[in-house]
Amino acid sequence: MKFQAEACTTSVGGPRWERRLAIERRRAENHARRGRRTFRLSRIFSLKTAVKLFLKLSRLQARGEANARRPIIRRVSFSFPNLPTSFDGFRILHLSDFHFDGEAARAVMIRDMLRGVESDLCVLTGDYLADYFDPLGRVYCNLATVLSGVRAQYGTVGILGNNDHSEFVQRFSDLGVRMLVNDGFELGIKGESIWIAGVDDPNTFECEDVAGAMRGASSGAFKLLLAHSPEVAREAVEADVHLYVCGHTHGGQMCVPVLGPLFLNASCPRRFGSGAWRYKTMQGYTTTGLGTSAIPARFNCPPEAAIIELRRAR
Ligand SMILES: [Fe+2]
User: Fold this and answer.
1) Are 82 and 221 in contact (CB under 8 A)?
2) In angstroms, what is the span from residue 125 Cα to ligand 1's centroid?
3) For 65-99, how does the pLDDT look when each residue is reduced to its tens digit (9 = 90+)?
4) Per residue in 185-228, pLDDT tens?
5) What domains can be seen in the chain, in order of their start residue?
């Protein structure tokens, strides 16, 4: 069962959606009034600026940029005692944080990397644009290019990140992606089902509604939550989520041996910043993502497409 384009519309609305639209209007007004580059001392005297300068002076920039252009496929496995038997071995292809800046070459590279990768469901966890104020047109072409390489038996599901626009919901739906905005649906296989939910961005827009996304799930259902960042883990545990899948942090993007990531850009424990983690009764996975932001380089933190395999614990 693939999601058909006409079946990919998603219900948006309610106070949180109105809040997102109001924030977007305000951002556009401020941008038109002040322009993109406003003078801020914090921009000049920041750790990111210092790292940028260091990379340039030490000539490590080129190596970091090359690292950022070499994505890997990472395979991880999670076991759950309550996973329906029909979903034992279910493979989720997790793609996140493309940060397309208009260039088509990286989309083509990701598409080619995904050729031959079989999965059951593809999930996109936000940040399709390099910068919120970048032109939107090319992002649709680039996403369409990536999707042409995706082999997912049950289709592709997506959510919005902190760099994304509300209009992506309809435009991505037109590309065949089932967009979830504080919403969920039941995916059934051989008479058994799991609940797949997605929330709006919890990082910057703060328009997420974890409990609302679970509305409709049958009691005792296995629940998968897609969120852009790992910042609503506590709410997810309260909503009885079993697996929390997210991105946003880029795994730190630049990691120092022993010390770990320099930046996570998220209000969460550092252990939620990359890879597999556990919080109370819930398991989680934070991908390093496929793109970069702020500094176009990576160290000790390769970009990745993750294959998350669900196993039923014996
Ligand atoms: Fe993000």
Assistant:
1) no
2) 9
3) 999 999 999 999 999 999 999 999 999 999 999 99
4) 999 999 999 999 999 999 999 999 999 999 999 989 999 999 99
5) 43-312 (3.60.21.10)
For the sheet containing 223-226, what is the strand order? 183-189, 192-198, 223-226, 243-246, 282-286, 275-279
DSSP state of 261: E
The rounded Å distance from CA 158 to ligand 1 centre is 14
Give the three-class secondary structure for 298: coil
Q: Which residues of the chain have pLDDT under 70?
A: 1-11, 35-45
How many Å lie between the centroid of ligand 1 and the Cα of residue 110?
19
In angstroms, what is the span from residue 152 Cα to ligand 1's centroid? Answer: 24
Q: How far apart are the first and last CA of the chain?
A: 28
Strands 192-198 and 183-189: antiparallel
Residue 17 CA to ligand 1 centre (angstroms)? 18
Tell me the CA–centroid distance for residue 87 and ligand 1, in Å. Answer: 30
Distance 130 CA to ligand 1 centre (A): 10
Structure tokens at 85: 């038997």
pTM: 0.92
